Amino acid sequence: MPALHRCNNIADLRLRAKSKLPAPMFHYIDGGADDEWTMRRNTNAFDDLQLMPNYLRNIEHLDLKTNVLGTQLDLPYFLSPTGMSRLFHHEKEYAACKAAHQHGTMYSLSTLSTTSLEDIATCTPSAKMFQIYILKDRELTREFVQRCKASGYQALCLTVDTMVAGNRERDLVNGMTMPPRITPANFFSYGTSFSWLFNLLKDPNFTLENVAHRVDALDKGAMALIDYVNSQFDRTVTWEDAAWLAEQWDGPFVIKGVQSPADAQKAVEIGATALMVSNHGGRQLEGVPAPVDCIAPIRDKIGDQLELIVDGGIRRGTHIIKALASGANACSIGRPYLYGLAAGGQKGVDRAMNILTSELHRSMTLLGVSCVSELSEKHLIPLNKRSR
Q1: In contact, 298 and 242? CB cutoff 8 Å
Q2: Residues in the annotated binding site
Q3: Residue 311: which H helix or E strand, with range?
Q4: What phi, psi does 347 have (nearest 5°)?
Q5: Angle between helices 239-249 and 261-269 (to 10 degrees)
Q6: Tens digit of each residue's pLDDT (9 = 90 or more) over 238-276
Q7: Which residue has the higher pLDDT, 1 or 278?
Q8: Beta strand 107-109 with 330-333: parallel, antiparallel or unpaired?
Q9: DSSP letter string, 179-226
Q10: Which residue positions form the known binding site for glyoxylate?
Q11: Is residue 280 annotated as part of the catalytic site, yes or no?
Q12: Cα distance between residue 333 and residue 320, in whole Å
């Protein structure tokens, strides 16, 4: 297991996270749906794009700042909404929020977080986004909007690809439940994760803080996360509901999970301001395209009517560069910072972001680009085409 300061890339952080976590927690971060082809493709798709550098340019000063979702970020990427961070480290969502603030970028809080949206709002002064579902309890959805307004959230993000939970077989094999449940089958895995187990004994609270006052499913004991999702999420949600939510919010409004140009056009029509082009990290429908492969077709359809955020598969700074050159306004990362969180709490998230930002600086310098706004398709060559 590499020490935190010796983790030189996201893959190293993943190995450290694996050594720190019980198997159910690690594989919940690490796994995808069905055969996990989509999850792998999310990253492998970047290999189909080659970078074309231009030399003898003045790149003494690099500018990574990006304007997205009505705010300026110091980096062209931010932290995606991911549920239940307490599963991975006792510093939970606070650790990621503080690390994002240190790097001058945005933190996104999930509906299914183990810290309340009000507590995260006061954790740092940086801009924040709240990720929302339209649940069967529509009044809870309305309540979320009002709470986010009162707490000063910058943007609201509606996830649309989770009408039913994906077939995440690793969770079934490893007995992943919320809250965690130690069984004879996974006892050894829990018992050898000494630091995680020690902090579990100190603080066994895994409450879903934003919904606990309205949803009592987990009060009945540990249950499979797939069962929880299937019991609470509404399969009848339509574009009319999304339009209603955009009107209720009346601010930067993001739809997360769209991949098709047709759906992107619908998002324009209902008042969205941005898309997180995402397949939920390959954790929902198997066999769908990688987010980075969707950017150009969506741009061709809607032009600049929406900001586009690539969400999924990013493991290197060059991946961020390729996404921006493909036409994205920004990127978001999920697994990379969760590996960091599991590897070392706030320090681990900071390490993950330092790695990606350092790679961005170095790669932009070598590419001959001093500002992320200069990145365009002229810096890309599809792998099946030769440069001239």
Answers
A1: no
A2: 28, 81-83, 110, 131, 133, 159, 168, 256, 278, 280, 283, 311-315, 334-335
A3: strand 307-311
A4: -60, -35
A5: 40
A6: 999 999 999 999 999 999 999 999 999 999 999 999 999
A7: 278
A8: unpaired
A9: S----TTTHHHHHT-HHHHHHHHH------TTTTTT--GGGG--EEHH
A10: 28, 133, 168, 280, 283
A11: yes
A12: 10
> What gap in Å lies between CA 332 and CA 122, rounded to an integer?
22
User: CB-side exposure of 34: number of CA atoms within 13 Å?
Assistant: 11
Main-chain dihedrals φ then ψ at residue 92, nearest 5 degrees:
40, -140
- Residue 84 CA to residue 107 CA, distance in Å, equals 15
**CB of 153 closer than 8 Å to CB of 126:** no
- Which of 280, 319, 361, 379 is an active site residue? 280
Residue 259: closest CA among 217, 288, 231? 288
Q: Any idea what the Cα angle at residue 237 is, between residues 235 and 243, rounded to 5°?
A: 170
Place of tokens 């001959």: 368
Torsion of Cα atoms, 199 then 203 then 205 then 210, to 10° = -90
Listed by start position, the domains of the chain span 4-382
Q: Which CATH number is associated with domain 4-382?
A: 3.20.20.70
Q: Which of 234, 4, 12, 251 is nearest to 127 (CA)?
A: 251
Are the C-beta atoms of residues 134 and 241 closer than 8 Å to each other? yes
Buried b (16+ CB within 10 A) or exposed e, 73-93: bebbbbbbbbbbbbbbbbbbb
Tell me the per-residue pLDDT of 276-329, one tens digit each, with 9 for 90 and over: 999 999 999 999 999 999 999 999 999 999 999 999 999 999 999 999 999 999
Binding site as annotated, residues for FMN: 81-83, 110, 131, 159, 256, 278, 311-315, 334-335
CA distance 193 to 170: 19
State both tokens at 262.
Answer: 């047709």
Q: What is the pLDDT of residues 174-212, one digit of tens each?
A: 888 877 887 777 778 887 888 998 998 888 888 888 887
